[in-house]
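Budget justification aside, the reviewers requested a transparent look at the raw inputs and outputs of the sequence design task funded under Objective 1. We therefore reproduce one unedited record. The lines immediately below are the C-alpha cells for a 305-residue chain.
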C-alpha cells in the first residue's frame, strides 16, 4: 500500500516537503551551476525552485528529484535566453565562477559541485552555444538525463533534441583535450609554468606552451581597456604577457579549479587571480584567468585556508 504524501498546506506537510527538498539541494545547485556557470545565479535558481515547489501540489509527483530537476532546468533556460539577448552585441569573454578546491581534498559541498566536473574552458565554450543546445548537452552528456525528459524542457521533439546535443558536442570537442593528457603530466606543466614565470625565463615559458595557446582574462566590467576581457593568441604573445606575472608568482598556490590543475594567486592577503590551465600533447593549450575583484571576493574557499 502506497503511503499518502504529506499535505504541503499543513505545518507538518510543509516541514516534510522542505526536508525532501533539502535532500536534493546539492544536486540542484550543481545542475544550475553547470547550466549557468554562475554560483550566485545557481543559488537564485534553487531558491526560485523551492518557492515553486512549496506552492505546488506534489501529491501526484512520482519522482520528486526528476521533477525538481525539470523545474531548475526550465528556470535556467529562461535565464540563458535573457543573458543571450543582453550579450548578443558584446565580444567580451566572461569567465564563469570558479570552484576552488585543495588538491589534497575537497569539502562535501565542493565535491557535489565538481562531480562530473565542467572545467572553465568547457564553460566558456558553452557560453557560445544557444540556450537550447547548452541545456540539451549538459543535461544529457553531463548529467545523464534521457532525451525524452529533456525534449519537453527545450520544447522540441526527441530527435530534434538529440540534434541539439550533437551540434553542441561537435563545438566543444576541443575543450575536452586535457582528458587525454595524464594528470601527472598536467601538474608537471603547471610547475614548469610557475617556475619559468618566477624566474622571468621567457624561453622556458614558451617551451611549456602549445603553439596555438589561447589566454583569456576577465578583468570585470569596465576594468579592461576595451570592455571587460582580453584574449591573447600564440606562444609569444601569451608568453610575454605571462612575464608580467613574475612578481606575483611567489604568491601562487596550486589548486584544483573546477577539478582541473591551476593556481590561486593572492597579494597583500587578498585574492588577486584564479587561473585554470588546459592541456594538449604540445603543452598548455588554454589559460583562463579571473581577475574581477568583486567576484574574487565572493569565492568559496576551503575552510582551512
Amino acid at each position: 500500500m502506497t503511503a499518502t504524501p504529506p499535505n504541503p498546506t499543513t505545518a507538518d506537510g510543509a516541514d516534510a516537503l522542505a526536508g525532501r527538498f533539502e535532500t536534493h539541494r546539492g544536486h540542484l545547485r550543481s545542475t544550475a551551476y553547470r547550466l549557468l556557470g554562475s554560483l550566485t545565479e545557481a543559488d537564485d535558481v534553487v531558491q526560485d525552485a523551492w518557492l515553486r515547489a512549496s506552492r505546488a501540489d506534489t501529491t501526484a509527483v512520482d519522482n520528486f528529484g526528476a521533477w525538481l530537476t525539470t523545474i531548475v532546468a526550465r528556470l535556467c533556460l529562461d535565464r540563458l535566453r535573457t543573458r543571450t539577448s543582453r550579450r548578443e552585441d558584446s565580444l567580451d569573454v566572461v569567465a564563469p565562477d570558479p570552484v576552488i578546491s585543495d588538491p589534497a581534498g575537497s569539502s562535501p559541498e565542493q565535491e557535489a559541485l565538481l562531480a562530473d566536473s565542467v572545467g572553465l574552458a568547457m564553460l566558456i565554450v558553452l557560453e557560445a552555444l544557444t540556450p537550447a543546445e547548452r541545456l540539451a548537452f549538459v543535461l544529457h552528456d553531463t548529467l545523464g538525463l534521457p532525451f525524452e525528459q529533456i525534449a519537453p524542457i527545450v520544447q522540441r521533439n526527441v530527435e530534434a533534441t538529440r540534434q541539439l546535443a550533437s551540434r553542441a558536442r561537435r563545438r566543444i570537442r576541443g575543450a575536452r583535450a586535457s582528458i587525454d593528457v595524464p594528470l601527472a603530466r598536467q601538474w608537471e606543466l603547471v610547475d614548469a609554468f610557475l617556475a619559468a614565470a618566477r624566474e622571468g625565463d621567457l624561453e622556458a615559458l614558451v617551451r611549456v606552451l602549445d603553439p596555438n595557446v589561447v589566454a583569456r582574462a576577465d578583468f570585470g566590467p569596465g576594468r579592461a581597456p576595451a570592455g571587460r576581457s582580453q584574449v591573447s593568441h600564440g606562444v609569444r604573445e601569451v608568453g610575454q604577457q605571462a612575464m608580467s606575472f613574475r612578481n606575483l608568482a611567489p604568491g601562487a598556490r596550486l589548486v584544483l579549479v573546477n577539478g582541473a590543475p591551476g593556481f590561486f594567486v593572492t597579494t597583500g592577503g587578498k585574492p588577486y587571480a584564479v587561473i585554470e590551465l588546459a592541456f594538449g600533447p604540445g603543452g598548455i593549450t588554454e589559460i583562463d584567468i579571473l581577475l574581477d575583484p568583486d567576484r574574487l571576493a565572493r569565492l568559496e574557499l576551503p575552510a582551512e585556508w
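Residues 11-175 form a domain with the Butyryl-CoA Dehydrogenase, subunit A; domain 3 fold (CATH 1.20.140.160). The beta strands are 100-101, 209-218, 229-233, 252-257, 260-267, 270-280, 283-290. Computational costs for records of this kind are itemized in the attached budget.
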